[in-house]
């Protein structure tokens, strides 16, 4: 029985950094980042006026595009069916490609780098782009819920909290990275948000494509504690985003660059803070498995010593 217990934890033996990268808690961290950039469909109102101004759409046409945007974002049957026959990394890569293709074509159209598309073409671009978030959400939700079946309600709630924050997170990335570190043009032109929607979610999905996968279902009730810590971090992140949104409306003694730089550093710290929770949990499991391995080696060594002693006694008796 003790040997079987050691086999269950053998994935944590060896180099901790290597095993952490393959662990279930790093998967949870990667899942939170993927869903933090999976809410592009919520940002349509930030650049919809540019669709009207640049492409000459009226409100009726804009409503039609908005309908197909919602259709792509809320029709997850395709991603669900593909999930049944393909591995998780393939789902994430498909989502990354469709996200980039859809939103990048919208950006090329809205910046007039390609000829003005027909309305049906623009609707198709939005369906492709917004449907990509279903691939990300499906793969992440299934992997995490199957890994933590005893805490599936908490897991889903935690992941959905980052989906709800995703629009604010992407917007903050646009403000702090592009707005404050680039030319003034991008700060005023909301068309650059579409480029951010095309690039950032695709990059994050590709980076964690081989991290999100199924693990042996966890039967530990103490897995609830780290998820509550994740909740606290998500709440702190939401509070911080609300705070900088409010303070941005008032005059600040700092320069625009300094203000955005400080805000970005704090924002980035809160966004990666779940990584430290994941490291703590995996480090605990790794130390536990190492201790069990040492105990097993001691037991085996004692059994071998007892066997040698019995052999010696038998030889003496025969002599």
From TrEMBL:
Residues 24-279 form the Nodulin-like domain. The keyword Membrane applies. Keywords: Membrane, Transmembrane, Transmembrane helix. It is a multi-pass membrane protein. Coiled coil: none annotated. It is found in: Membrane. It comes from the Eukaryota. Pfam families: Nodulin-like. GO terms for cellular component: membrane. InterPro entries: MFS_trans_sf, Nodulin-like. The keyword Transferase does not apply. The chain crosses the membrane at residues 25-45, 89-110, 122-142, 154-173, 193-215, 227-250, 257-279. PANTHER family: NODULIN-LIKE DOMAIN-CONTAINING PROTEIN, UNCHARACTERIZED NODULIN-LIKE PROTEIN. This is Nodulin-like domain-containing protein. The lineage of its organism: Eukaryota, Viridiplantae, Streptophyta, Embryophyta, Tracheophyta.
């Amino acid at each position: 029985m003790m040997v079987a217990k050691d086999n269950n934890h053998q994935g944590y033996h060896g180099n901790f950094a290597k095993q952490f990268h393959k662990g279930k808690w790093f998967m949870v961290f990667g899942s939170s980042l993927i869903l933090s950039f999976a809410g592009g469909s919520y940002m349509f109102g930030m650049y919809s006026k540019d669709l009207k101004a640049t492409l000459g759409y009226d409100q009726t046409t804009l409503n039609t595009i908005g309908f197909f945007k919602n259709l792509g974002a809320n029709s997850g049957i395709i991603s669900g069916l593909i999930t049944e026959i393909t591995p998780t990394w393939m789902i994430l890569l498909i989502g990354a490609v469709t996200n980039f293709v859809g939103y990048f074509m919208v950006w090329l159209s809205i910046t007039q780098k390609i000829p003005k598309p027909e309305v049906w073409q623009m609707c198709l671009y939005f369906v492709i782009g917004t449907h990509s978030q279903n691939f990300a959400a499906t793969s992440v939700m299934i992997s995490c819920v199957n890994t933590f079946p005893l805490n599936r309600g908490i897991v889903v709630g935690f992941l959905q909290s980052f989906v709800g924050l995703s629009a604010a997170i992407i917007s903050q990335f646009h403000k702090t990275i592009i707005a404050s570190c680039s030319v003034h043009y991008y700060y005023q032109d909301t068309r650059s948000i579409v480029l951010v929607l095309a690039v950032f979610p695709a990059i994050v999905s590709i980076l964690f494509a081989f991290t999100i996968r199924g693990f042996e279902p966890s039967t530990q009730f103490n897995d609830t504690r780290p998820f509550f810590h994740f909740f606290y971090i998500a709440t702190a992140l939401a509070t911080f985003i609300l705070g900088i949104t409010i303070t941005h409306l008032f005059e600040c003694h700092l320069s625009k660059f300094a203000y955005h730089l400080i805000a970005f550093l704090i924002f980035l710290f809160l966004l990666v803070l779940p990584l430290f929770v994941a490291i703590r949990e995996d480090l605990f499991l790794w130390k536990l498995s190492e201790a069990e391995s040492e105990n097993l080696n001691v037991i085996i060594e004692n059994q071998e010593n007892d066997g040698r002693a019995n052999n010696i006694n038998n030889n003496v008796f025969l002599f």
